[in-house]
Design brief:
Mean pLDDT: 89
Low-confidence stretches: none
Radius of gyration: 23 Å
Strand order of the largest sheet: 1-2
Number of helices: 14
Helix content: 55-70%
Shape: flat
Structural class: mainly alpha
């Protein structure tokens, strides 16, 4: 594509910045090496975003050559009617209306999740400016969970999300939105945790405490049902997998099979973002195995 007359002409209308080291502020993405294309307006507000390689493939199939496809993608992105920043302002102005929140979620889908963690922080930080601050904080956790599930593989991020969900549910058991956070807790918050059955029993005990209200009891019943389903599914998957399958260690961790996990990890390579996760699995599996052997 470089050099090309099309790019020279495009540069007369748009400032083009190529960066392989740092994402623009509040535009968190998981893999920068996949070459994201972000289009900002004159105010510096994010208007569109896409994985450039994938989108070039789509547009070139429509008959464009690569330089003209790039121009088409940029110009199409610049025509997007909204920006993330503008929708954030609208959320505050409407005091957290459902319509403004849905508009934010739709925009995040449009920009392929770029900026999700920033939006999650924004929803929490501006909660007191909304009609229902508790609901805004719950929405923040929901967006954060989606970001962790789809963009972020980070030990600290999963730990913070898990802690935030557990604490929110404990503090607001009667809020109408709270039951909707059980699924993100199981599917994302505990995605890389060891022995989710034991952990969820601990959460249930914490939530019940000395206040066995109807709302708390219903949450615990719902949690237990969802845990049972998840463990049943994980055990079924394990039964169908080969001993060397890539997904096997994670499933062994989920069901809390200490012996099986420790054996699997003898031949499992630990690298990059998974090192602290694997270290936690090993630590907790060894502790469980030691406790079992002492009985």
């Amino acid at each position: 594509m470089l050099p090309s007359q099309q790019l020279r002409d495009l540069a007369k209308t748009f400032d083009i910045c190529l960066s392989g080291k740092k994402s623009p502020a509040n535009c968190d993405v998981r893999y920068r090496q996949l070459y994201w294309l972000m289009v900002f307006d004159a105010k510096g507000e994010l208007r569109s975003a896409c994985k450039l390689g994938e989108q070039l493939g789509v547009v070139t199939k429509q008959g464009f050559d690569v330089p003209n496809a790039f121009v088409e993608i940029v110009e199409a992105g610049s025509r997007s009617k909204t920006t993330l920043a503008g929708l954030k302002r609208a959320y505050v102005e409407s005091r957290g209306s459902l319509a403004s929140f849905e508009a934010l979620r739709e925009k995040l889908d449009e920009v392929h999740g770029v900026g999700q963690m920033g939006i999650a922080a924004f929803l929490a930080e501006t909660a007191d400016k909304t009609k229902d601050p508790v609901l805004s904080r719950a929405r923040s956790l929901l967006i954060e969970a989606h970001a962790c599930s789809h963009q972020v593989i980070n030990y600290g991020a999963f730990s913070r999300l898990r802690q935030g969900l557990v604490e929110f549910i404990d503090e607001h058991p009667s809020h109408a939105f709270t039951p909707k956070l059980l699924q993100p807790l199981l599917d994302t918050g505990l995605k890389y945790s060891f022995d989710i059955g034991v952990k969820c029993r601990s959460y249930a005990k914490q939530w019940l405490g000395g206040d066995v209200s109807e709302a708390r009891s219903e949450l615990v019943v719902a949690l237990n049902k969802q845990v049972a389903i998840k463990l049943q599914k994980a055990n079924k998957q394990l039964a169908e997998l080969k001993p060397t399958a890539y997904a096997r260690p994670q499933l062994l961790a989920v069901v809390g099979d200490a012996k099986g996990l420790l054996q699997a990890m003898e031949t499992t390579k630990s690298y990059g973002v998974f090192r602290p996760i694997h270290a936690e699995w090993r630590r907790e599996a060894e502790a469980k195995a030691k406790l079992s052997s002492s009985k």
